[in-house]
C-alpha cells in the first residue's frame, strides 16, 4: 500500500532510497575501515578498540531502522484489513491512525536529531578524548586521532540535513491531509 498523500510517497522515496543509499554507501566509505586507522596514545590494541567503540556512531543505523518501522505499522494494518487509499482519506479512524504514525515519525526524528547533537555536536574533531577509566588505566583520559575527520563532519551535517528534510516532509504530509479533509485540495 502506497502512502495516501503525495508528500508521504515522496517521503518514502526520499527516505528509502536517498537517505539509505547515502548512509550505506557513503557512510561505509567514511566509516568502513576506520578501526584500522583509529589510534590512541598509548597505541595499544585494547585501548584503541575500547575508545573506538565509544566514538563510533551506530546511532544512524538505529534511526534508519526505527523510522520506517513506525510508518510500516499503519501500512501493515491497512494491508491486513484491505484498506485502500480512498478509504484512508474518507474514514476518520484511518486518518487519525495514519496521522498518529506520522506524528510518531516526527517525534522520533526530533529526538534522534537532539540526541545526535548531544553525542556528536556539529563537527568531528581531529582529536577524540576517550575515558579509559573502565580499563583500569593510570590516566582516565586518552587522546585518540580520528581519521578523515573533515569527511566525517560533512557526513554528519548531511545526516542532520536529511533528518530536517524528513521532519519537514512529515509536517507537509499532515498539512496535505488536513487540506484534503477540509476540501482545500481535491482528492484524485
What does this protein look like?
- With 188 residues, this protein is mainly α.
- The chain has a single domain, classed as Gap junction channel protein cysteine-rich domain (de novo design (two linked rop proteins), Up-down Bundle).
- Helices cover 70% and strands 7% of the residues.
- The chain contains 7 helices and 3 strands; from the N terminus they run H-H-E-H-H-H-H-E-E-H.
- A 3-stranded antiparallel β-sheet has the order 1-3-2.
- Helix 1 runs antiparallel to helix 4.
- It is elongated.
- Its main location: membrane.
- Pfam families: Connexin (PF00029).
- It is found in: Cell membrane.
- One of its GO terms (cellular component) is connexin complex.
Protein topology:
Elements: H1 6-31, H2 34-37, E1 39-41, H3 45-55, H4 59-80, H5 85-90, H6 92-120, E2 127-131, E3 141-145, H7 149-182
Antiparallel strand pairs: 1-3, 2-3
Amino acid at each position: 500500500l502506497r502512502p495516501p498523500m503525495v508528500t508521504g510517497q515522496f517521503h518514502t522515496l526520499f527516505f528509502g532510497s536517498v537517505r539509505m543509499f547515502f548512509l550505506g554507501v557513503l557512510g561505509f566509505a567514511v566509516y568502513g575501515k576506520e578501526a584500522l586507522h583509529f589510534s590512541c596514545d598509548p597505541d595499544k590494541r585494547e585501548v584503541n578498540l575500547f575508545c573506538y567503540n565509544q566514538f563510533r556512531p551506530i546511532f544512524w543505523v538505529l534511526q534508519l531502522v526505527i523510522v520506517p518501522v513506525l510508518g510500516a505499522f499503519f501500512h501493515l494494518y491497512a494491508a491486513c484489513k484491505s484498506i485502500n487509499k480512498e478509504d484512508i482519506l474518507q474514514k476518520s479512524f484511518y486518518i487519525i491512525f495514519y496521522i498518529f504514525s506520522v506524528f510518531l515519525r516526527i517525534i522520533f526524528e526530533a529526538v534522534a536529531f537532539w540526541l545526535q547533537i548531544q553525542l556528536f555536536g556539529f563537527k568531528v574533531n581531529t582529536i577524540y578524548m576517550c575515558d579509559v577509566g573502565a580499563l583500569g588505566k593510570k590516566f582516565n583520559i586518552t587522546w585518540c586521532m580520528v581519521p578523515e575527520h573533515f569527511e566525517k563532519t560533512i557526513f554528519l551535517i548531511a545526516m542532520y540535513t536529511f533528518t530536517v528534510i524528513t521532519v519537514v516532509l512529515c509536517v507537509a504530509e499532515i498539512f496535505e491531509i488536513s487540506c484534503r479533509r477540509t476540501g482545500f485540495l481535491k482528492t484524485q
